[in-house]
């Protein structure tokens, strides 16, 4: 279990990245979603032992991340794929993984080679393992990144914005890969793309402006928007009256708008079932509203 209590982070200049974060994360895949700048990466870096919190506490499988000994012990249990992983472009995938395995303390050559071959197979890069990394596509580099994060058989895998810049096919492949990993270790997936967590996470938190504004199951987030999602078919101007357009679909007799809100009598609105994205947008809109 990962336990986070009253965690805050303030950067130089007074920039408040995190404020009073309280979370308990158990096994399986946990989704951390929120817009860019919400504080997700700061939280991931603190969990990975790369950033010191300003206040509060973090425990990773009973290891106190506030102490040098606890941080060192926790790092031996986790794998981390940052948003931007530095590669050595002239190394092959196999050479890079061998180098990273040594840094992670997998010193026995036979054990290291067996682990690397297994991971190359899991991320489906065996056939190109001897190609230089500079020839890899973005999706292939992400898969090398996952392989390096899994070296040493971690109990916790932290993945920060893994699908940014990937084409739709690679995004689906990557999400499926992470879902498979969640069967053998805890996976924390941080993203601003709601679709990345819609089919894989059984537990999630939504962050905004350094705070957790929702914690629960995906179905509970969907419930936030129930009764407030409609389709409206219009020929001329887009809908107004305080409605938020989620998506549009060009039809033969006009444009079908998927909207959030309560359409007034001007529109022939049809209520529809909300999606996870609807629930997320509804939550973010109401979180942004000032309280009286």
Would you kindly provide a brief summary of this structure?
The protein has 9 helices and 14 strands.
Description:
The chain has nine helices and 14 strands. The longest helix is centred in the middle third of the chain and has 14 residues, at 109-122. A hairpin with a 3-residue loop joins strand 1 and strand 2. It starts with a strand and ends with a helix. The mean pLDDT is 89. With 292 residues, the chain is an alpha/beta fold. Helix content is 31%, strand content 29%. The strands form three sheets. A six-stranded mixed sheet has the order 6-7-8-3-9-10, sandwiched between helices. The protein has helices at 40-47, 68-75, 93-103, 109-122, 138-150, 168-181, 195-198, 218-223, 276-288; strands spanning 2-11, 15-25, 29-33, 55-60, 63-64, 78-81, 156-160, 186-191, 203-208, 211-216, 229-234, 244-251, 254-260, 270-271. The protein has two domains: 2-217, Rossmann fold; 223-288, no CATH class.
What is the helical fraction, as a range of percent? 25-40%
Q: How would you state the average pLDDT, rounded?
A: 89
Question: How many domains make up the 3D coordinates?
Answer: 2
Shape assignment: globular
Instruction: Describe the strand arrangement of the main beta sheet, using strand numbers.
Output: 6-7-8-3-9-10
- Helical segment count: 9
Percent in strands: 25-35%
* N-to-C CA distance: 37 Å
Q: Tell me the radius of gyration.
A: 22 Å
Which series of helices and strands comes N to C? EEEHEEHEHHHEHEHEEHEEEEH
Structural class by helix and strand composition? alpha/beta
**Any low-confidence stretches, pLDDT <50, length ≥5?**
none
CATH arch. level architecture of the largest domain: 3-Layer(aba) Sandwich
Please summarize the sheet with the most strands.
6 strands, mixed
CATH class group of the largest domain: Alpha Beta
By DSSP, the count of extended strands is 14
CATH superfamily of the largest domain: P-loop containing nucleotide triphosphate hydrolases
């Amino acid at each position: 279990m990962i336990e986070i209590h009253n965690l805050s982070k303030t950067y130089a200049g007074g920039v408040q990245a995190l404020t009073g974060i309280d979370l308990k994360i158990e096994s399986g895949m946990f989704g951390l979603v929120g817009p860019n700048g919400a504080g997700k990466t700061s939280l991931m870096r603190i969990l990975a032992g790369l950033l010191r919190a300003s206040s509060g506490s973090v425990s990773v499988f009973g290891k106190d991340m506030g102490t040098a000994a606890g941080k060192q012990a926790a790092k031996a249990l986790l794998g981390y794929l940052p948003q931007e992983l530095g590669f050595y472009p002239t190394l092959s995938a196999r050479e890079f993984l061998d180098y990273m395995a040594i840094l992670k303390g997998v010193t026995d050559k036979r054990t290291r080679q067996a682990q690397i071959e297994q991971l190359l197979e899991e991320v489906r890069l065996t056939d190109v393992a001897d190609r230089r990394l500079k020839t890899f596509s973005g999706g292939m580099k992400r898969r090398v990144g996952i392989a390096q994060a899994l070296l040493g058989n971690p109990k916790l895998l932290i993945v920060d914005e893994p699908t940014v810049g990937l084409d739709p096919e690679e995004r689906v492949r990557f999400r499926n890969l992470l879902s498979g990993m969640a069967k053998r270790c805890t996976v924390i997936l941080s993203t601003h793309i709601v679709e990345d967590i819609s089919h894989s996470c059984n537990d999630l938190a939504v962050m905004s402006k350094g705070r957790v504004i929702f914690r629960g199951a995906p179905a509970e987030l969907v419930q936030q928007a129930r009764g407030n999602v409609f389709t409206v078919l219009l020929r001329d101007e887009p809908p107004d009256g305080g409605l938020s357009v989620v998506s549009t679909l060009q039809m033969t007799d006009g444009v079908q708008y998927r909207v959030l809100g309560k359409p007034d009598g001007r529109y022939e609105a049809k209520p529809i079932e909300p999606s996870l994205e609807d629930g997320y947008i509804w939550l973010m809109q109401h979180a942004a509203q000032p309280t009286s």
